[in-house]
Amino acid sequence: MNVSDRLYGEQEINEPVILELIASPAMQRLKGVSQHAFVSRELEFSRFEHSLGVYFLLKRYGAPLEEQIAGLIHDVSHSAFSHCIDYVIPEGSGQKQNYQDKIFSEFVLNSEIPSLLKKYDFDINYILDDTHFPLKEKTLPELCADRLDYSLRLALTAQKLTAQKMGRRELDEVLNGLKAENGLWFFANLALARRYAILFSDLNRNFYAHLLAAGVYARTGAYLRYALEKNYISHDDLYTTEADVLEKIAVHHAADAEAQRLFEKMNDKTGFTNNPDDYDVVIHLKSRAVDPYFKDGEKLKKLSAADPTWGVALAEELKPKEYFVKFTC
Questions:
Q1: C-beta separation of 157 from 179 below 8 A
Q2: 231: region left, alpha or beta (phi > 0 left; psi from -120 to 50 alpha)
Q3: What's the pLDDT score for residue 267?
Q4: Fewer CB in 10 Å around end: N or C, the chain?
Q5: CB of 286 closer than 8 Å to CB of 209
Q6: pLDDT tens for each residue of 257-304
Q7: CA 208/CA 200 separation, integer angstroms
Q8: d(CA 72, CA 306)
Q9: SS3 helix, strand, coil % of the chain, rounded to 5?
Q10: Are 214 and 323 in contact (CB under 8 A)?
Q11: Quick one: how many helices (H) and strands (E) in the chain?
Q12: Closest CA to 155 of 217, 207, 213
């Protein structure tokens, strides 16, 4: 199987277990789940594309096959509209945006994935234990394959969001300067580490933790909550695709003016402000920042150790963001 990936170029997949996982219903569903919940349609890519990207990255840097498998399936528990789920159900948390992580093991165990892995003699419990896979997943502000892929993938399409323009040549420089040894990601030098960290912060401030995201999450969340309350959709429907969910709700628009109104507002990306003195809803957003390692002679050093000002900025940027959203139309 040959895949043309926008970030890593032409990729060949010939490992049978990977091919079967890619073809599985759990993975194929992710083609209909957007990475950013429609925050910006022109910058959107699917959870499926990102999941393949994590697999390609782990494979490129020599991670064991078990870790490649874990990377490939790491997003199967995402609902339609991705992190919007954290603004729809009571169990969600906008500050952490981690509902999909909470249900991941249960979701996988109830899918076809365990039987598929058993066919190839892989232990599902081993695959589900992230302590085995330090390249695949780490908590902020550490680097991991998941974080590297989604940020670089967005950077490729989000030129206007970043102070550092990351075209094909610049992205290749970052990827070629990225190293992995003993379960740790690091950059070849301080300049590359700083460059990537600043890029990541640009993406966070101008996209992940921006007012635009707060407004979109608020309005998409309101539309989906309303549909759930009216029984136009069920919780299980949220684990189909976005197109399926929207189609199922849309049949009620003609008879339900409020559903139609909420749908129209969900698609408005400009009709809100941040106003602590006059607001309709308070929205919290997870805020992201990284503190990469780099090679300093024969030693590894963190960016914050080489640049103490980065450590100060890092602590501030990792704090969840709070927006007092006022809808202006």
A1: no
A2: left
A3: 82
A4: C
A5: yes
A6: 999 999 999 888 788 899 999 999 999 999 999 999 999 999 999 999
A7: 10
A8: 34
A9: 50, 10, 35
A10: yes
A11: 16, 9
A12: 207
At 5-43, the pLDDT tens digits run 999 999 999 999 999 999 999 999 999 999 988 777 767
Phi-psi sector, 37: left (phi>0), alpha (psi -120 to 50), beta = left
- Which tokens belong to 36? 């950013």
Please state, in angstroms and rounded to a whole number, the distance separating the CA atoms of residues 230 and 212: 27
Amino acid at residue number 208: Y
pTM over 0.85? The answer is: yes
| Residue-level pLDDT at 169 | 81
Structure tokens, 26: 């759990």
DSSP type of residue 111: S
The SS3 of residue 187 is strand
CB atoms within 10 A of CB 115: 9
* Residue in 150, 160, 165, 154 with CA at minimum distance from that of residue 57: 150
How many of the other CB atoms lie within 10 Å of CB of 14? Answer: 8
Q: Is the peptide bond before 134 cis (omega within 30 degrees of 0)?
A: no
* Residues 327 and 265 sit within 8 Å (Cβ to Cβ): yes
Distance CA 232, CA 212 (A): 27
At which residue do the structure tokens 């640009």 appear? Answer: 202
Judged by average pLDDT, the poorest of 40-49, 86-95, 97-106 is: 40-49
